[in-house]
Amino acid sequence: MPAFDTIDDLPADSRVLVRLDLNSPIEDGDPQDNRRFERHAETVRELADAGHRVVLMAHQGRPGRDDFTSLAGHADILADHVGRDVAFVADTYGEAALDAIDALEPGEVLLLENTRMCDDELPEASPEEKAETELVETLAPRFDAYVNDAYSAAHRSHASLVGFPLALPAYAGRVMETEYEANTAIATREFDGPVTMVVGGTKATDVIGVMDALDDRVDRFLLGGVAGELFLRAAGHPVGRDVGEMDLFDEQWEGNRELIESVLDERGDAVRLASDLAYEGADGDRAEVAVDDIEEKREAFLDVGAATVADYEPAIRESDAVFVKGALGVFEDERFADGTVGVLEAIAETDCFSVVGGGDTSRAIEMYGLSEDDFSHVSIAGGAYIRALTGEPLPAVEVLEAAADR
Q: Binning pLDDT at 50, 70 and 90, where does residue 296 land?
């Protein structure tokens, strides 16, 4: 069990400051609805229904980027999911924000402006330094408690994540609680049968680190995506290279070559590589080629092939636990979703403990009509999921645990 307190432990009639992660794709200036709103709405609804005065903090984008924008639109989307009004104030800790906080009645919900519009928020620093920022010192006295529900940002040491638990009694929201338990299961739970990890995506550096860290916890790795091609390259195949305008493989190969070769050398029997790959044929349709028949990489490979899916499925079906990190292909394009969806379908049909991680991969479940209920947990975290899998500390979780000890 986690060593932090949850909202079950919150005293009645509290004025609570709640940190969410509502970071979303922005299209034409508007935030797009996604799984994060739905998940966080559970915590917000529960707190409001219990009669707490609920003030929300969240971030969107980063200064200088196109998606760095106000949270005004986020309040409307969240309200739809919560089923009650979510007021918004275009201020985080100035007079307008403080007045709006003071005016809240029991059961009312208020969203403050983007925390990353505050100078105090972003630079990574120790919790002690963050607790002394103007943001924390101004807001904390207005509240009885702090709730962190932003597991997907828990690997960051930002003021809204690590400063408040030093200044207020601190609790975990429902997303924080469920994500933490599922994502640490690979390190903390004992499984009776084989543990399998499906590894893909474009950030090979991340997943190769995970493979190295979980060496003794995972019985077999099923590879696809960029990492899968780099492992094929290490195994002597002429793939895992950039072609044309591509900029995905060569740099990651240089940075990870030694680690990939050592993982293959030491755990080669546990690493399953694709036997065929899919690409866009001359007619624009999906085409497949056996890896052994590739003499030179001339085009981008966008998915694993049918033979690979057929090879991976039995390994999944006999597993006691399956963890997914990253998609096996470019599933956003229906032509190249077979690998990712085939593997997810096999997991869904298997009676095993399963965690699907990484925001992108979890989207495939929705896109292709699979049910979240067929998986033990679908994570909305990316970087924090990687950290949890590799056993690296999560600063925002550590301060929650320290607050519980106090």
A: very high
Given a cut of 90, whether residue 234 has pLDDT beyond it is yes
pLDDT digits (tens, 9 = 90+) for 314-334: 999 999 999 999 999 999 999
Domain ranges of the chain: 7-180+394-405, 185-390
Task: Give the pLDDT mean for 293-310.
Answer: 97
> Position of tokens 């975990």?
172
| Fold of the domain built from segment(s) 7-180+394-405 | Rossmann fold (3.40.50)
Query: What are the Cα distances from residue 7, in Å, to 4, 177, 377, 396?
Result: 10, 9, 20, 16
Q: Which residue has the tokens 């299961």?
A: 185
Q: Exposed (0-12), middle (13-18) or buried (19+): which is 320, by Cβ within 10 Å? A: middle
Q: CA-CA distances (angstroms) from residue 196 to 160, 170, 190, 272, 332? A: 36, 35, 13, 11, 24
Mean pLDDT of 193-202: 93
Residue 1 has pLDDT above 60, yes or no: no
The pTM of this model reads 0.84
- Assess whether the region 7-180+394-405 and the region 185-390 belong to the same CATH fold: yes
User: Cα–Cα distance between 249 and 242 in angstroms, integer?
Assistant: 5
| Structure confidence at residue 359 (pLDDT) | 65
* Candidates 3.40.50.1260, 3.10.180.10, 3.10.20.30, 1.10.260.30; CATH matching 185-390: 3.40.50.1260
Q: Which residue has the tokens 């599922």?
A: 182
Alpha-carbon distance values, 329 to 33, 278, 325, 339 (Å): 24, 9, 12, 6
- The bridge status of strand 109-111 relative to strand 87-88 is parallel
pLDDT for 390 beyond 80: no
